[in-house]
């Protein structure tokens, strides 16, 4: 497959996933802030900027962190790369370049969403828009799995989706523990529980948690579900397994691609075995989540290097001498 | 028709109308179509039109308008009433188009080799050698099978005589064939019952025709064919992606390609893969920064070398512009006679050349009766329709023309034929006469065999009285039906 096409498929998956995650966290926050009379002093909006890694871009454009500003910034402001609209515009632009690789249904559906978004532009119905985005992304995932051949294209898309999802889950957890953390005497109080509930809801994990643990919400169990559970589709474990499977489905043709595959395998082993659990205890949650993000970052860099940004030239000398060279290619973007 | 206002209007039709006879009665081939639309009524047609537009938009069957700063994608408005051409008329078009393709191929091969036609004085040497479209890099280069034009689109019009005339040859990147196929597809979706009433020749095998002719250019088994596009911001990007997709070929940009040891490769996730045939949808000027414009980032450095070495076939060959130049057009009948020793099957429109002193004088004196076109532009940019220009515009154009006469040609204003088209006029919706042209498409393989697609792009000027049909100037399009011989419109099946 053309390297550029592979990269565009990867980024299509990534952007759709990012749009969905932004919609999810905003949606939950909306609901949380409706109950603000209960704990009005809490700033629930700054963490949204931290989760999306967009604080700097926000400060350049808006003065105060208020509900309206953050919503405007993360939903419809297309002057920076962190809003839902930017993600979906970008996804549609990518899809245009790979129409022959994705199914007709995927294109039609994405294009309809894009055109519809143009229409509702600045109308104030944010709640229904967020719900629409979540619904759209879920349906899009369904189309990806059910209308596309499960070939290399599909696997590159899965790479983009699962890597982005793992990163998001880790950021969401990080925020809870280090920005939302109330003073020590609040732990276990209604406010704290309320926040854990919101966090579970933002990853559609509330029901999964209840079914699995039944009991009241306990932070260590939430952390366990979102990190180590092998069946919950937004846990880091699950995402890395998807990533690993996707890589298995892409034919490996050089050493660096092999190294990438090894890297994910080791990561997966850590999550599957006890290593990750021990890390949480050893490094503390913050240290552990940072290490997860670092590993995801490394995998992302390796994906770009081995599949998108370099070419392998195989030089054949005579009959049995083969020499594979990897040369970086210039990006003309 | 019991007191209801008629849906289809003949008033304002040109001397030759595609659907109405001069006495105002309906041409036989159109009778069933008229019955179909009358039965639908205004509301029925509007609702079908709406669903056709929506289908185009959702499919992304769009083009990009350059003058619009945001590069907005627009649909190419699709008209519900098909343009119907009977088998007899089509036969002449088919033969005429093939004849031109063959003759112009011979001309290009000659111009880039022995130049016999120039020595014989049939075409003035200065006309060719001073043309900015003459491509020195093609001199002495031997394309596979000596074929230069692999894909051609020939613009035809029908004037008041009712005879088809050639208006222009497009031998570089003729576009529009994707709309031919999409229009038929939409037609089949929104008006299947109408389509079923006629015996219409299919057009959806075009990608196969194109692929076969491209693949024939390579001597290698199972050659890799790729389509080179400037990218998503190009106005015809939809078509590039459509054709690549339909042919199962890779759609590549310049950045995806590299030339090593005179062989063209594309960069893939598994390393380099050789490309044998490249269908060019990028202007020659931008093709190879080493040979042409050095600032181009759309092309591939060294590709002309690989071409010259015979390691890759390019279609269309670079340098074809010298044969579809608007000034050369005036010589095309002579070119056909010179190479084929035949009379041109399709006549051309009388043409005055700014480079001829007597013609220029005529042009300056009769500007109001002429269409004046720059020789090196397309898409309807920079042309003047004398009868529709204001006094001020005429004056401005006259001085431009006098200052740079070689740059212009002129033709008597042609009364394009009209065709009933769904528009708003006089405060209501209905089918009113609008001017149309026709662009059939032809492909030529390595053996020089030309195949013409039975159909073509009928473009229609949606503004009342307008003669400019280009999509970039607000034109629309129609599905074009070429009927099988004998029973054009079958007798009622009921």
Short description:
With about 325 residues, chain A is mostly helical.
Range of strand content of chain B = 15-25%
Head-to-tail CA distance between termini of chain A: 19 Å
Count the DSSP helices of chain A: 14
| Helix content estimate of chain B | 25-40%
Radius of gyration of chain A, in Å, reads 21 Å
The low-pLDDT segments of chain B are 67-71, 488-494
Largest interface chains and counts? A-B, 29 and 27 residues
Main sheet makeup of chain B: 4 strands, antiparallel
Description:
The complex is a heterodimer of chains A (333) and B (494). Chain A has 333 residues and is mostly helical. Helices cover 69% and strands 5% of the residues of chain A. Chain A has a two-stranded antiparallel ribbon with strand order 1-2. Chain A is globular and about 75 Å long. Chain A starts with a helix and ends in a 5-residue tail after the last strand. The mean pLDDT of chain A is 84. With 494 residues, chain B is α+β, with helices and mostly antiparallel strands. Chain B has 13 helices and 22 strands. The interface between A and B is medium-sized, with 29 and 27 residues.
């Amino acid at each position: 497959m053309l390297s550029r096409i592979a990269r565009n498929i990867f980024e299509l998956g990534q952007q759709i996933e990012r749009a969905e995650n932004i919609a999810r966290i905003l949606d939950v926050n909306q609901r949380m802030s409706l109950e603000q009379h209960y704990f009005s002093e809490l700033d629930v909006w700054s963490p949204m900027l931290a989760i999306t890694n967009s604080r700097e871009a926000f400060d350049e454009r808006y003065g105060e962190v208020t509900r309206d500003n953050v919503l405007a910034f993360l939903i419809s402001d297309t002057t920076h790369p962190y809003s839902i609209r930017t993600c979906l515009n970008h996804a549609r632009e990518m899809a245009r370049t790979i129409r022959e690789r994705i199914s007709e249904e995927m294109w039609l559906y994405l294009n309809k969403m894009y055109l519809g978004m143009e229409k509702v532009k600045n109308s104030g119905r944010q709640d229904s828009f967020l719900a629409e985005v979540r619904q759209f992304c879920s349906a899009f995932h369904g189309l990806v799995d059910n209308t596309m051949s499960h070939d290399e294209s599909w696997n590159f898309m899965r790479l983009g989706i699962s890597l982005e999802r793992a990163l998001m889950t880790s950021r969401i957890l990080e925020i809870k523990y280090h920005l939302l953390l109330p003073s020590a005497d609040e732990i276990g109080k209604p406010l704290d529980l309320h926040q854990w509930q919101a966090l579970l809801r933002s990853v559609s994990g509330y029901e999964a948690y209840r079914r699995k643990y039944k009991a009241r919400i306990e932070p260590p169990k939430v952390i366990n579900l979102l990190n180590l559970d092998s069946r919950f589709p937004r846990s880091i474990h699950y995402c890395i397994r998807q990533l690993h499977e996707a890589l298995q489905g892409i034919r490996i043709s050089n050493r660096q691609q092999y190294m990438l595959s090894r890297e994910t395998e080791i990561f997966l082993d850590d999550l599957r075995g006890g290593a990750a659990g021990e890390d949480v205890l050893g490094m503390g949650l913050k240290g552990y989540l940072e290490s997860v993000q670092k590993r995801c970052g490394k995998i992302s860099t390796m994906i770009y290097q081995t599949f998108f940004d370099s070419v392998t030239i195989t030089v054949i000398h005579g009959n049995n001498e083969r020499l594979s060279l990897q040369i970086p290619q210039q990006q003309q973007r | 028709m019991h007191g209801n206002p008629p849906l289809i209007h003949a008033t304002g039709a040109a001397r030759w109308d595609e659907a109405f006879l001069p006495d105002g009665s309906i041409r036989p081939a159109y009778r069933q179509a008229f019955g179909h639309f009358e039965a639908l009524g205004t509301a029925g047609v509007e609702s079908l039109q709406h669903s056709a537009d929506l289908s185009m938009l959702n499919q992304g069957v769009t083009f990009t308008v350059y003058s619009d700063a945001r590069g907005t994608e627009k649909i190419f408005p699709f008209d519900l009433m098909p343009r119907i051409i009977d088998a007899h008329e089509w036969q002449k078009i088919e033969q005429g188009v093939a004849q031109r393709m063959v003759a112009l191929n011979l001309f290009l091969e000659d111009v880039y080799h022995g130049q016999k036609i120039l020595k014989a004085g049939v075409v003035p040497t200065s006309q060719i050698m001073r043309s900015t479209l003459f491509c020195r890099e093609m001199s002495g280069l031997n394309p596979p099978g000596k074929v230069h034009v692999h894909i051609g689109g020939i613009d035809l019009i029908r004037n008041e005589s009712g005879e088809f005339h050639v208006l222009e040859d497009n031998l570089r990147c003729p576009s529009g064939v994707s709309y031919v196929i999409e229009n038929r597809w939409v037609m089949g979706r929104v008006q299947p019952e109408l389509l079923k009433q006629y015996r219409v020749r299919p057009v959806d095998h075009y990608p196969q025709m194109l692929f076969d002719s491209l693949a024939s250019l390579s001597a290698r088994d199972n050659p890799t064919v790729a389509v080179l596009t400037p990218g998503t911001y190009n106005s015809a990007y939809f078509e590039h992606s459509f054709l690549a997709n339909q042919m199962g070929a890779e759609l590549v940009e310049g950045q995806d390609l590299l030339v090593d040891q005179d062989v063209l490769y594309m960069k893939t996730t598994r390393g380099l893969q050789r490309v044998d045939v490249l269908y060019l949808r990028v202007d020659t000027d931008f093709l190879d920064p080493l040979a042409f414009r050095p600032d181009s980032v759309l092309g591939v450095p060294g590709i002309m070398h690989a071409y010259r070495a015979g390691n890759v076939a390019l279609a269309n060959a670079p340098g074809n512009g010298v044969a579809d130049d608007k000034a050369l057009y005036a010589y095309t009948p002579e070119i056909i006679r010179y190479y084929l020793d035949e009379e041109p099957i399709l006549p051309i429109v009388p043409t005055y050349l700014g480079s001829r002193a007597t013609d220029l004088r005529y042009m300056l004196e009769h500007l109001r009766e002429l269409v004046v076109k720059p020789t090196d532009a397309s898409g309807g940019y920079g042309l003047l329709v004398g009868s529709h220009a204001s006094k001020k515009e005429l004056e401005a154009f006259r001085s431009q023309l006098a200052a740079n006469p070689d740059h212009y040609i002129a033709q008597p204003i042609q009364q394009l034929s009209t065709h009933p088209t769904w528009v708003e006029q006089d405060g209501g919706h209905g089918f009113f006469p609008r001017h149309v042209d026709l662009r059939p498409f032809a492909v030529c393989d390595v053996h020089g065999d030309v195949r013409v697609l039975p159909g073509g792009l009928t473009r229609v000027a949606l503004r009342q009285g307008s003669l400019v049909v280009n999509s970039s100037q607000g034109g629309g399009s129609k599905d074009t039906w070429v009927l099988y011989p004998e029973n054009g419109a079958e007798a009622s099946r009921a």
